[in-house]
Design brief:
Blueprint: H1 21-24, H2 32-36, H3 41-51, H4 56-63, H5 82-93, E1 100-101, H6 114-121, H7 124-127, H8 139-156, E2 160-161, H9 168-182, E3 190-194, H10 199-212, E4 215-219, E5 230-237, H11 248-256, E6 260-265, E7 283-287, E8 303-307, E9 320-324, E10 330-334, H12 341-344, H13 357-395, E11 399-400, E12 446-450, H14 456-465, E13 468-469, E14 471-474, E15 477-481, H15 488-497, H16 508-514, H17 541-553, H18 575-578, H19 584-587, H20 599-616, E16 620-622, H21 628-645, E17 653-657, H22 663-670, E18 674-678, H23 688-697, E19 702-708, H24 720-729, E20 733-737, E21 757-759, E22 780-782, H25 818-851, E23 870-873, H26 882-891, E24 898-899, E25 906-909, H27 917-938, H28 956-960, H29 970-974, H30 979-982, H31 994-999, H32 1006-1012
Helix pairs in contact: 3-25, 4-25, 5-25, 6-13, 6-17, 8-13, 8-17, 9-10, 13-15, 20-25, 21-22, 25-27
The structure holds pyridoxal-5'-phosphate.
Length: 1013
């Protein structure tokens, strides 16, 4: 693209002569790289001139230490046009076969209302938002997340719910950890898990417990005797085989034994069934997937987590709460942040950072669109269909819903099996007596069917000939789960499958007419739910559309301006990358569908793994971790297992520089490691002397170092190889936090300079949008000696030979968003990706240079340059804080850079390669205008309190109010820069009072009415 660069699309090398011009002109002239990278050739040349470099290569050579540079181009395909890449992906997607899924196990097909699909899921106004840390310009998604929390509280019957977790299995593991924190006194260290939980829930909990030395007992909840030492229990409601249990006496026994109770519950069923909070649960967790979120071969979906109010300060994950703004009006913000890893680090309640905000918003929107009655009708219909199916199966001679089998939950799947949907081979228990005709046991949407003399394999074969998948429980038992997409024809087809592929002699209508039974009375939900206005007024599409648009307009996303958040890489999420996520070949596949039906996905995974391995230099990649935090945790477990395999399980010390992101120490603790902090020097580099001293002091027990590269201070540390060597010298491993990979792709590779494992935030460097706080993906790359320990899965055979166990519910994490990163890499090609890195460095240095007279850059590295981000130092100002500047930027139409992290009183700016020079200049102009305002305050020309910075942001109603008690004009308040006359983004609320919100936590919608009174 640039004159100084070699185009890899048609490299005129000696080995490969230039293609004849005629042939070249047959190729479409458009190239994706031109769409992805912001500055054009001329602009880049001008920027380079300002920096004093003759070419992009010269700047790169000066910024990146030669000792770590990759001396060859990446071995990746050439870049292409968007049209060309999508064409290839279509042919890959076509290898996936979309069968009707009746597998269940926590995943249900569902209907995404088109108004939600187009206006949230496929809408960059929603999906390109950042996590709502700057609450004044995030009120829309905060309101929808509050709706989500309210919905979860109401459906579960509990008092407080968070704003989503990553998946049901990790939510169950978080619940186990919370119970342990709350209830470990007296040496309680064991956790009981019902064997009738979904297999992936059991294994993820086991993996988590293993690292912490917690004992897990899997068994029958009916006969569990609560011996001493148990701090908590986990049961599934309805259970994985479909049975609805009356857990009341079990919970009474648990509480009598001083044990906390976690119930993993299906949200849709809770519209009909007594909610966990009403029968004594202390925590409820589960998935909100079937509330309109495509099943997507495993994710992304939002998990929920609800508990009692008294436990709120121990909850994991983000929590939206109501506070008030500068004018006393209700305003939303993330609350009780002091529980989280950003602040509490190794003492945090969890390592969760990126969660599943976009999907939580979709689930809340689904509940709003249907309302309580609509949801109930959907649930009733699913349940009615299930009963009809049970009656039909009974007429065919089966005993459906008879009794859950007893699985032996061996965590490792049998490698001879392609998949192992039961988790193990069950024995049959005698039936305790039925609940009437049809199902022997009460059930909601799932039937466990014993086939008598028939074999599961035969039924499965017949089902597949009808393009349908059932769950294999054992050689003569299958499971069938129904969902809202099931029709009368589907039921007829299912019965035909069980009738030796012949139409039965009765009809669905006849069966329906004969069914008198409903959910047994003891399970029927009596309490009302979702009575709030928001769940009862947007049922027409027009109303819903306007509500969604109203919320969207309150939030600043990439559709408005650059979001220059350091360490977050808010780059372009190209439309061509996003389109495939909605293709049914990716979105409508159950995570446990047979591998023979998911060949397209397998091709995509294999290519993506190979490409990411080439980009990082590692031997293998696991795509399972579904956020950066989960990648860190998985990578550290792999390292622990490696030490264990060498008889060195005592190695448990993890060195972490003080500049590290909060997830690092929180993940280390979750992986059972002891955190030892390493100092940084005044340049922001790791203090080598301190590192050596700490490594020496802990040489016997050193497990690893966690290091971010380039550092969170935005510089390429020259000593990185030395650092890695030092750790290896003391027997430790090097875990690299790959959040800053955007500064490395094509220039240097973590494995080459000595890292042993690393996670990659695909939602940063590889274009998955942030979704207002998730989804994300955090795959890990590992060196050869660690490959054998990569995460496994209880249902699908994958991972290393000696795996750490599952770290996420689905085998490939949030599989359906992987096409985004695939399109990015395939579209950019080796040269395009490398160019993107160089331009990211150019853009950051351009901003640092343009602002240096106003806001000095705190740390500089090699060549006096920064890497892909720069930290602006605001600490010398006496009367204005970095927060004031962050809020004032909103009046100029910008999202603030990262505020006060990793250094208090600073702003960390990461422009990314996708921003054009015009946008960078606009941002710099805004910062320079603001500098003028700061100077006016500092010099006493403006009031130290009543000034545009302290009063920022200014809302439309502040400007329009009759009272204007400020010594500066309204125009200066709201239109301080020329471009604002063309386009003005109005912050929805004034500056939010953080302290008030934390002192008076209100985390459900009901509070909004109270506050607005
Ligand atoms: C340096 C660094 N490490 C780790 C993380 C955690 O990643 P995630 O939010 O995907 O869990 C972040 C996220 O912002 C980060 O900036």
């Amino acid at each position: 693209m640039f004159a100084t660069e070699t185009s890899e699309e048609d490299p005129p090398t000696e080995a490969q002569p230039p293609a004849p011009a005629l042939m070249e002109s047959l190729k479409h002239p458009d190239r994706f790289v031109r769409r992805h990278i912001g500055p054009g050739d001329d602009d880049a040349r001008r920027m380079l001139k300002e920096l004093g470099y003759a070419s992009l290569d010269a700047l790169t050579d000066a910024a990146v230490p030669a000792s770590i540079r990759l001396q060859r181009p990446l071995h990746l395909p050439d870049g292409r046009s968007e049209f060309g890449v999508l064409g290839e992906l279509r042919s890959i997607a076509a290898k996936n076969r979309v069968f009707r899924s009746y597998i269940g196990m926590g995943y249900s097909d569902c209907i995404t209302p088109p108004v939600i699909q187009r206006n949230i899921f496929e809408n960059p106004g929603w999906y390109t938002q950042y996590t709502p840390y700057q609450a004044e310009i995030s009120q829309g998604r905060l309101e929808m997340l509050l709706n989500f929390q309210t919905m979860v509280c109401d459906l579960t019957g509990l008092e407080i719910a968070n704003a989503s977790l990553l998946d049901e299995a990790t939510a169950a593991a978080e619940a186990m950890m919370m119970c342990h924190r709350l209830n470990h006194e007296g040496g309680r260290n064991a956790f009981f898990v019902s064997r009738n939980c979904h297999p992936q829930n059991i294994e993820v909990v086991q993996t988590r417990a293993g690292a912490l030395g917690v004992e897990i007992v899997v068994g029958d909840h009916d006969t569990f005797a609560f011996p001493a030492g148990f701090f908590g229990v986990l049961v599934q409601y309805p259970d994985t085989f479909g049975a609805i249990h009356d857990y009341r006496s079990f919970i009474e026994r648990a509480h009598a034994a001083g044990t906390l109770v976690v119930v993993a519950a299906d949200l849709l069923s809770l519209t009909l069934l007594k909610p966990p909070g009403e029968f004594g649960a202390d925590v409820a967790v589960g998935s909100a997937q079937r509330f309109g979120v495509p099943v997507g071969y495993g994710g992304p979906h939002a998990a929920y987590f609800a508990t009692r109010d008294t436990f709120k300060r121990q909850m994991p994950g983000r929590l939206v709460g109501v506070s008030k703004d500068s004018r006393g009006r209700p305003a939303l913000r993330l609350s009780l942040g002091t529980r989280e890893q950003h602040i509490r680090r190794e003492k945090a309640t969890s390592n969760i950072c990126t969660a599943q905000a976009l999907l939580a918003n979709m689930a809340a929107a689904y509940a709003i669109y249907h309302g309580p009655q609509g949801l109930k009708q959907i649930a009733r219909r699913v349940h009615f269909m299930t009963r009809i199916l049970a009656l039909g199966l009974q007429r065919l001679g089966y005993k459906p819903g008879q009794m859950p089998p007893v699985p032996d939950h061996t965590p490792t799947p049998d490698p001879s099996q392609e998949r192992n949907l039961a988790g193990a081979t069950p024995d049959w228990l005698p039936s305790p007596g039925g609940a009437g005709d049809g199902c022997a046991l009460p059930c909601f949407d799932t039937l466990c069917v014993h086939l008598g003399s028939k074999r599961s394999a035969d039924i499965i074969k017949t089902a597949e000939s009808h393009r349908a998948n059932l769950r294999v429980i054992d050689a003569a038992t299958v499971g069938i789960s129904l969902d809202e997409t099931v029709t009368e024809n589907d039921l007829a087809e299912l019965l035909q499958i069980f009738n030796d592929d012949r139409a039965p002699a009765f009809t669905i209508k006849e069966l329906a007419a004969g069914d008198q039974l409903d959910v047994p009375a003891e399970f029927v939900r009596q309490s009302k739910f979702l009575t709030h206005q928001v769940f009862n007024r947007y049922h027409s599409e027009t109303e819903m559309l306007r509500y969604l648009k109203r919320l969207e307009a309150r939030d600043l996303s990439l559709t408005t301006s650059m979001i220059p958040l350091g360490s977050c890489t808010m780059k372009l999420n190209a439309t061509c990358e996003m389109l495939p996520v909605s293709w049914p070949e990716f979105s409508r596949i159950h995570p446990f569908a047979p591998l023979r039906q998911t060949q397209g996905y397998q091709v995509l995974f294999q290519q993506l793994e190979e490409w990411l391995a080439e980009i990082t230099g590692f031997a293998a990649v696991s795509l399972q971790p579904n956020a950066g935090s989960q990648g860190e945790y998985a990578g550290l477990l792999v390292i622990r297992k490696y030490h264990e395999s060498r008889g060195q399980s005592h190695r448990n010390v993890c060195l972490i520089p003080t500049s590290a992101h909060g997830t690092n120490p929180a993940s280390a603790v979750m992986a059972g490691l002891k955190v030892v902090a390493v100092a940084c020097d005044k340049e922001g580099n790791i203090d080598l002397a301190d590192l050596r001293a700490k490594a020496e002091a802990h040489h016997d027990n050193l497990a690893c170092l966690m290091i971010t590269y380039p550092s969170t201070h935005g510089v390429f540390e020259e000593s990185i190889q030395q650092i890695c060597d030092l750790i290896h010298e003391f027997g430790g491993q090097v875990y690299l936090d790959g959040a800053n990979l955007n500064a490395q792709v094509g220039l240097c590779r973590p494995a080459d300079f000595g890292a042993d494992a690393c996670h990659l935030n695909l939602h940063k460097t590889f274009c998955i949008p942030h979704g207002g706080g998730g989804p994300g993906m955090g795959p890990i790359g590992v060196a050869e000696h660690l490959v054998g320990f990569l995460p496994g899965h209880p249902v699908v055979n994958l991972g290393g030979e000696n795996p750490i166990g599952a770290v996420a519910a689905a085998p490939w994490g949030s599989a359906s968003i992987l096409p985004i990163s695939w399109v990015y890499i395939a579209g950019m090609g080796a040269a395009g990706l490398t160019e993107a890195t160089k331009v990211a460095i150019l853009n950051a240095n351009y901003i640092a240079k343009r602002l240096e007279k106003h806001f000095p850059t705190l740390y500089r590295g090699h060549g006096g340059l920064v890497a892909h981000e720069c930290i602006l130092d605001l600490r010398d100002f006496k009367s204005v804080t970095a927060e004031d500047v962050a809020k004032r930027l909103m009046d100029y139409g910008f999202h603030a850079p990262t505020l006060s992290w990793p250094v208090a009183g600073t702003l960390m700016v990461e422009p990314t390669e996708s921003e054009s020079r015009a946008e960078l200049d606009r941002f710099c102009d805004a910062m320079i205008f603001i500098h003028g305002e700061i100077m006016a305050v500092e010099s006493g020309r403006m009031d130290p309190q009543n000034n545009p910075l302290k009063n920022a942001p200014h809302t439309a109603d502040m400007i329009a109010a009759d009272n204007w008690n400020h010594p500066y004009p309204r125009e200066q308040a709201a239109f301080p820069a020329p471009w604002l006359k063309e386009h003005k983004f109005w912050p929805a609320v004034g500056r939010i009072d953080n302290v008030y919100g934390d002192r008076n936590p209100v985390c459900t919608c009901a509070g909004m009415e109270a506050y607005s009174a």
